[in-house]
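2 proteins. here.
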Amino acid sequence: MKIKIDENLPTELAELLRADGHDVHTVYDENIAGTDDAHLFRVATTEERMLITQDLDFSDVRQYKPGTHPGIVLVRLNDPSRIEVMARFSSSDLRTELTTWSKCFVVISDHKIRVRRA
């Protein structure tokens, strides 16, 4: 799966997902950290990459309707620290499910994963 990791997530997440065989780019890899959300979304969509972010600006499913983009995964943890994000993604079940989320809007919280499909 092609994935783009936003700047508000640890770079170690990219390494973890690459180890699972995913094609992962980060905004740091592409020197677009700090870019506005519209530009980031265009880049991810043009590259056909699922965007993984903690940015609530991507939470409006009316604007980012499932099926109209490669996929958005919004990470919403009570403690969004690097350690907690990596702990949540350390679940191989979560990373296996990731491959089924193409074109979906997904919210990952501490104890739940909500998937809105096209």
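next one coming up
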Amino acid sequence: MKTNLSIRQLELSVFLGWPEAERAQKQSVWIDIEWRPINVPGACVSDNLEETLCYFTLITQLKEKTEGTSFRLIEHLAQTIYKIVQTFSSLPAQIQVGVKKYPPIPGLTQGVYFTYGDH
């Protein structure tokens, strides 16, 4: 049996951009997280929150640990989020993080998206 928890389009407000001027004020980015535990979480049977990943607490941690930090590249932001999720997870799991942003580039209508993870 395989399981998967997906967090979709989590909006974070971060200082992000290669030029210093772009990092001068926060901008929104959208985060996707796939958490695939190696074994079925005990919570599937027990209905006990302690036996799975608490996404509310994880999201709170992500906001606290990223919103005051400056990032030049979405690649570094994705890797930072990956490490936070990895550290937070008490169960061995495969993790995939996607970061989307809309840089001020004329004609770029769908933004840019970078993924980092185990799968």
